Amino acid sequence: MIIVLKPHATKEQLAHVDKLVKDRGLDTHIVEGQDMTIIGCIGDTTMIDPKLFEVNEAVDKVMHVQEPYKLANRAFHPEDSIVDVSGVKIGGDHLALIAGPCSVESYEQVLEIAQAAKASGANLLRGGAFKPRTSPYAFQGLGMEGLDILCAVREATGLPVVTELMSPNYLDVFNERVDLIQIGARNMQNFDLLKQLGQVDRPILLKRGLNATYEEWIMSAEYIMASGNENVILCERGIRTFETYTRNTLDLQSIPVLKRLTHLPVVVDPSHAGGKWWLVEPMAIAAVAAGADGLMIEVHNNPECALCDGAQSLKPKKYDMVLNSIKQIAPVVGKQV
Amino acid sequence: MIIVLKPHATKEQLAHVDKLVKDRGLDTHIVEGQDMTIIGCIGDTTMIDPKLFEVNEAVDKVMHVQEPYKLANRAFHPEDSIVDVSGVKIGGDHLALIAGPCSVESYEQVLEIAQAAKASGANLLRGGAFKPRTSPYAFQGLGMEGLDILCAVREATGLPVVTELMSPNYLDVFNERVDLIQIGARNMQNFDLLKQLGQVDRPILLKRGLNATYEEWIMSAEYIMASGNENVILCERGIRTFETYTRNTLDLQSIPVLKRLTHLPVVVDPSHAGGKWWLVEPMAIAAVAAGADGLMIEVHNNPECALCDGAQSLKPKKYDMVLNSIKQIAPVVGKQV
Amino acid sequence: MIIVLKPHATKEQLAHVDKLVKDRGLDTHIVEGQDMTIIGCIGDTTMIDPKLFEVNEAVDKVMHVQEPYKLANRAFHPEDSIVDVSGVKIGGDHLALIAGPCSVESYEQVLEIAQAAKASGANLLRGGAFKPRTSPYAFQGLGMEGLDILCAVREATGLPVVTELMSPNYLDVFNERVDLIQIGARNMQNFDLLKQLGQVDRPILLKRGLNATYEEWIMSAEYIMASGNENVILCERGIRTFETYTRNTLDLQSIPVLKRLTHLPVVVDPSHAGGKWWLVEPMAIAAVAAGADGLMIEVHNNPECALCDGAQSLKPKKYDMVLNSIKQIAPVVGKQV
Amino acid sequence: MIIVLKPHATKEQLAHVDKLVKDRGLDTHIVEGQDMTIIGCIGDTTMIDPKLFEVNEAVDKVMHVQEPYKLANRAFHPEDSIVDVSGVKIGGDHLALIAGPCSVESYEQVLEIAQAAKASGANLLRGGAFKPRTSPYAFQGLGMEGLDILCAVREATGLPVVTELMSPNYLDVFNERVDLIQIGARNMQNFDLLKQLGQVDRPILLKRGLNATYEEWIMSAEYIMASGNENVILCERGIRTFETYTRNTLDLQSIPVLKRLTHLPVVVDPSHAGGKWWLVEPMAIAAVAAGADGLMIEVHNNPECALCDGAQSLKPKKYDMVLNSIKQIAPVVGKQV
């Protein structure tokens, strides 16, 4: 941490700030520049709020130089983490191909989609049982019945199941029955829920919040890891920008950035990002080309009758075409399918 | 709802989309323009997802013309709602003056701040017992002990208490002991929590999410109201933009906009928005000038030693000066202090 | 400037970076921390691009600690600058009240509006002769004819004229005939134009770009000042955010921030920011309450027939009401009307 | 265009708005819904400002259903446009591989880089002679001397030259000597300059503004096309968002979106978007995978000594590796290299 003093700070003020820093167990090193004086703080500053020093009248600004996360930090864990989801590996050169409907509607629906997706190459099944909806009047998902259906289709197809947890009330059920627990974008900073995920045995798929910086996103992973569960997979699903033609702006730069800053696998959801089915194919291919460790794609057998988000779903035939391109692109960037 | 067909949509496609709409219980009215055809959908479209129709190949876009909220909508409730917080009225020409430390640290601290703030004119006491922190390593608040302190200071000063609820686990305790339950920006779309707030007797202070549109924010209020609790107060606390000099960008346009769209009171938190104490005074005055129904301001007797967010706290003396200006400005815009 | 080295940077790498810095005429001071080494660069770093050092493999990040602007910097010019626009003072405790139609349409129109606005208290006349329009097919303004009308109305009313310059081709004409030359948001980083403004005798009203940070905005003022014209007034007119209900988000925090960082007057345009006439009154009052040195408000005698932006124009009667409130608010924040 | 009236609009108000629309030469079609009435406007609404009707008290909102651009619209020009840059084709299945230094520094520098890039497969040479810089104190480019160098290197290598035009003063020189005239992000809405580009014979590379929506960007292309020059290539270079770890957020969804809305070629600049050299490789590959018609990449033989933006430049060896990957990916998405 570096504390920059205001141009005309006095010797007394410098001494006072210096003492404040030392009182928190840090060492200091003072650099007197031409126009300003800087205090370099030496020691573990991870747990110190830089704002504390900004209050001081003599302080111009405070800058962090160390990343505030440790367990997720690649600096302390140079190899890629590979997360095992009931036998399916994600990370390293393994590509997760997660497919399924936005919402679980019926056993027949999910089964048909899952079988088709598996035939195309999918290795994980997604489907929403509990749905986060902006409107209280919109379809909220089948709930426990939806979970039963997903488990039954897992039985029939062998595909491990990914589905979203919205409430701590269902934590035990999810821990028992779901293979990969998804935390949605709107709960990325539901810190109460994050802490409880540390108690769970299952790996976590942590979606990026619509307005989360890379650092905040990693800090949310750190919450889960610090609570005891190190099996975290990050999922880029688009951020909110000024552009409204697409639902969100898919930030593929996040892939190389996160792989540099952390050792966690990074999966991309091109369906929710753009909100339009015809954006899924080019963005899915681009995500793999940019180094993603997996794709989460909505597939529906009858998008026009989907209870939710039909507009962004691929038909099974189209999904098959997308995976065909992925199979050609993946080896170029060092992934196997 | 209006469905715009693509330029070269055929008669068959038009008939197909027309049928889809009617199947959902709506009436239609078809407008054939020069270059395009439009289907006007007549009936209650609040609960229909416009995306459903966008899937259709012949559809160019779908536009909502009705607001998707009802209980919060001023169109159906033209008078200002006035919320009663244990005897303190908020809304109409009543100004809520909420003050207190970011975090509860000790009984003495809170008491001293509360007494000073009350002497200046504050009518509600704020203080964080459970703190949402970006980092798992940061101070997370005193928890239940903090709540005890707040209640004791209420006893001593008569000021009703506002504090943040982060977990459904504490719902009953908060309902029993807290006068105004705050839902933080990061939980604004924690739909599970919102639904449970409908079961509570206490009024709710709903902060705007960092990236929430007005409509999404109102929809979160609608969640609480539709679940059974109509006493909702909205709190503008800044949104995330590209500007990073300030912590967030305080959006004062939200005040007149929300007052036009809804009948709910709107309170402003200038402390969290800017993140700098010297921004609080001008922004507090401006918020009242723009028509806010209240201010939530952080006051600390020793900001330099605050356990959290000291940089944005006012000292009691400065708070007193701010309220002095407020007392002069309020009558000009029709508020009493 | 501070250069942070990567955790495992070697002695040789440190020496190499140290030399690079010294080669640019700076002194260095090395701070060896627990986990990382920092090089403090001492001397004038204003003209050094920090990215240059980021290229180096051993460098983790480079941080600027000095503001990159000088002439506009309050640190070197502690008093408020007061700009004189043909006898009307802007800055300090003087409030600029700029009013007029978005576009100049006819002599009669401008005259009627100007007379009414002056009677209400306006002291400067605005009106667009050359209009920046997103569409090549939209009305582009009356051009030179519009300028003639503005000058004629100035003759008739005594109000100095503010109007937008879009092209260097008209620089001489504007210098001769316009009292305050406005540079629009979309030209805020038209560096070629900014440099030429240094040659002009007239003061400049520099609007904030839709996505300009405070620093970039000040740097654009610095361009004009460094080229020879120190009479710059900054104009906040809203920034682009994710919120689309309003045209832009008016950032009133910019007022206290700019007054802290610079000595230049800051004027606010609430008409363009929100794009809706009913937002103008509360935002105009709020802007003055926040410390603005002036207001630029669109007034039109028949908004329904305006050739451009009628939706955000006030009728003269409403403008009169707004100024009435302003007259009551201004003294509270130390301004005279 | 669709005009939505307020819930309680009277018959007289409806008739008045209806007349206003008809006065502008449009036909109307009235749809009376359960809660609201809608006026469908039939005819060419491209040149009508929807805000005009929003002024009316009885109007709730106005929505455009037609795109406001014509010449750039794929609806009226279904085939891909292929732009010829002095013999190098861009668009269709042709990939533009533009490489070179950020700034022109010397003949030797540019020649060495151009020869290496050409050997790797580059078919166009970029280099900045006139540089748009945020700071007036930063290196502004070699100007005409830089242009001379670029032309000399074109002579030596046969690579056509791309460089940025900042001022209308140099329009004739650029038209004579530059093969592809680049308009930078900050001038994307310099409408005066855009209009003058219609007079030029050379194709234009139009960079996206940092905060430009797809529609605004296309409208800027439409400005050039409507002024007489239909040879426009669009260049995605990242947009400004809340994320500051990267310089900007590269929006690869823009590629499929623009190809759907327009017939113009779309090129991507991964160097400026991220601002970090290690982001260039994954983003360049991803851009081609997403369907880009070309890449503009900064290559420098000694990034550490570059006068500008060295941090985002690739060394020639690395550029060669990137093109190797591109050569494998391109055929999968239907492009030839």
Automatic annotation (TrEMBL), chains A, B, C, D:
Residues 87-328 form the DAHP synthetase I/KDSA domain. It holds the Pfam family DAHP_snth_FXD. GO terms for biological process: aromatic amino acid family biosynthetic process. InterPro entries: Aldolase_TIM, Class-I_DAHP_synthase, DAHP1/KDSA, DAHP_snth_FXD, DAHP_syn_2. One of its GO terms (molecular function) is transferase activity. Keywords: Transferase. Signal peptide: none annotated. Residues 1-67 form the DAHP synthase ferredoxin-like domain. This is 3-deoxy-D-arabinoheptulosonate-7-phosphate synthase.
